Amino acid sequence: MLGGAADSGSPFALVRNIFTAEEADSLSLGLMPLDHPLIARVVSCMPGGIVDQSYARVENKADGHDWHYDTGDGDHMLWCRWSASVLLSPPEDFDGGDFEIAEPRQSFKHYLDALIFPSSVLHRVTPHTGIRRVLLIFLGAENGI
């Protein structure tokens, strides 16, 4: 896939230190423009293209996300082909909040690193307490592929 794979056999690419702590702290909760310089930095590492539906957001969802796909899950986001996640909060700021993939079973706390993966990968985020801010980016595929 991309350089810097997270682990042998993993569908993820890991781009280490994509942000500094100061840059991560500067991002506010909510939707972010894809042309924001920090968002564009992550997007430039992703193989998908920016289609009309593509978006980025920063969230702190304490109840996590149950097992899901970012595309095709109940006709949800059928356009999405690539996803990225950047943990913006230091892991010591929260308990729980593990980003997990189902196969092969792996868990990540990827502070300041971008995890980039096909949106067809089954994954979840466990519930957490404390402050766990994360940047999520969802892109389509160039030429609909």
Written overview of the protein:
The two termini are 16 Å apart. It is built from two helices and twelve strands; from the N terminus they run E-H-E-H-E-E-E-E-E-E-E-E-E-E. With 145 residues, the protein is mainly β. Helices cover 9% and strands 32% of the residues. The longest helix has 7 residues, at 37-43. It has a six-stranded antiparallel β-sheet with strand order 1-9-5-12-3-2, with helices on one face.
Spell out the blueprint of helices and strands.
Blueprint: E1 13-15, H1 21-26, E2 30-32, H2 37-43, E3 55-59, E4 65-68, E5 82-87, E6 94-96, E7 99-101, E8 106-108, E9 114-118, E10 123-125, E11 128-130, E12 134-139
Antiparallel strand pairs: 1-9, 2-3, 3-12, 4-10, 5-9, 5-12, 6-11, 7-8, 7-10
Outline the biggest β-sheet: 6 strands, antiparallel
β-strand number: 12
Could you give the order of strands across the largest sheet? Answer: 1-9-5-12-3-2
Our Rg estimate from Cα atoms comes to 14 Å
Ranges where pLDDT stays below 50 over 5 or more residues in a row are 1-8
Helix content: under 10%
Class by alpha and beta content:
mainly beta
Note the overall shape.
globular
Question: Which whole number gives the mean pLDDT?
Answer: 88
The ordered H/E elements are EHEHEEEEEEEEEE
How much of the polypeptide forms β-strand, as a percent range? 25-35%
Separate helix tally: 2
Distance between the termini: 16 Å
